[in-house]
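S.,

As promised, the adenosine-5'-triphosphate run. Input:
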Amino acid sequence: MVPLLEVHDLEVRYGKALAIEQVSLTVEAGEIVGVLGPNGAGKTTLLKAISRAVPARGGLTFKGEDVSALPVHEVVGRGICHCPEGRRLFPELTVRKNLELGAYLRRDRAEIAADMERVHTLFPVLRERGSQQASTLSGGEQQMVAIGRALMGRPALLLLDEPSVGIAHKLKMMIFGAIEQIRRDGTAVLVVEQDAVSTLGIVDRVYVLEHGRVVREGTAGALKDDDYIRQIYLGV
Ligand code: ATP
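Predicted complex:
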């Protein structure tokens, strides 16, 4: 069976600087895959290249189809939704309106309503805060809106860029729990993180990116036992 997402030998340059090179990875349907790495390793760039927000060289196939030359909105239409670093909400708009914007390409009203219900079940606080301006929410709640908005595109693959950054521990645990629920609901997840401990607790497989290259890959179980990972990423 072909993987849901297949990235082959991907390369992104910003001017002359190489941000990622020779990056190959796969995500199977139903998987949670993590990408770990330090600041500046190229994690955000990798997600942007997959969602076609930055130009890249190399292979990019989704559900067996070459998507390496598609514009962003067509990639979204195929089922890849990106929840960016820093959330990028519309601060003046209400929580509900921000969520609705995630469905901007869709016309299936009944299904959109069903997905809104699903997001509210995943993050009940967003139902309570629906008419509040997004800017008035806490950082963790804003992250929930950003994830919910991406889910409103009904993705087969959700790209999550550092969902736990700058968030209080309790909300962080809630967000990692939500990622597991999203997978149970049938959406595969590719999550970029710096929190190795929490990430290894929920993912099936991990790629470790350093200086734009994959330096380790394997199942979460195998990487938890890898001396290099234990020392550098887990601090044990
Ligand atoms: P962080 O965890 O800090 O977000 P990251 O692993 O996501 O880091 P990227 O943001 O992908 O890393 O950055 C990879 C490299 O590309 C870095 O050296 C960064 O300075 C550079 N870079 C990122 N965006 C641009 C840009 N728009 N123009 C020029 N260089 C960039």
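The chain has a mean pLDDT of 94. The first strand starts at residue 5 and ends at 14.

- D.
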